[in-house]
Amino acid sequence: MTVNVAGASVRKDWDTYFMDIAYMASTRSQCPRRHVGAVLVQGKKLLGTAYNGAPMGVDDCSEAGCMLVEEYEMRVVDGQQELVKKERCVRTIHAEQNLLLFTDRSDREGSTVYVTDQPCWTCANLLANSGVTEVVYDRPYLKDSEKVKEMMRQRGIIFRRMEGFAPPPGTSLQS
Ligand SMILES: [Zn+2]
Ligand SMILES: [Zn+2]
Fold it and tell me: Which has the minimum average pLDDT: 3-17, 59-73, 107-121?
């Protein structure tokens, strides 16, 4: 936090303010592998918050364990392409998808989504068709990253990463 000479905190800028809230939302997630939070902002008004989780009334990862799938991902390691095996939990509805399920189309038109993690391909596709015109994320997610960025560019959606952002203490699972 920045502190001015008098010792009082300086007001947070809007990006930081809303990304902080996205991280707060992410702490509600019950998946031990990934905590993702997302918020919908229209004209500096907060219109929705969401996190990744199982459908309502259905056992979540803390009760039933993660639902893991294995997949292979191409990675470049020291200039060499390598096939890396990864495990992914598919029990949860992603934060971005929950955000779209619980907000109205009219609230999304021309709005900004702040999300703790760079959206995956499926979420990016949904966001691109949701009325949202800007997506701001913090932690990069490399899988399909270039495809996602190119699709957002074609769609005319501002897609940017936070610069120099530090999540509020205790809200980041992966750091
Ligand atoms: Zn899980
Ligand atoms: Zn996703």
Answer: 3-17
Distance of CA 151 to the CA centre of its chain: 17
Between the CA of 60 and the centroid of ligand 1 the distance, in Å, is 7
Q: d(Cα 26, Cα 21) in Å, to the nearest integer? A: 9
pTM across the whole model: 0.88
Ramachandran assignment for 84, one of left (phi > 0), alpha (psi -120 to 50 degrees), beta (any other): beta
Residue 82 has pLDDT above 90, yes or no: no
Ligand 1 centroid to 37 CA: how many Å? 14
The 10s digit of each residue's pLDDT in 142-175 is 989 999 999 999 999 999 999 999 999 999 975 4
Please confirm, yes or no, whether 96 is among the known catalytic residues.
Answer: yes
CA of 63 to the centre of ligand 1 (A): 10
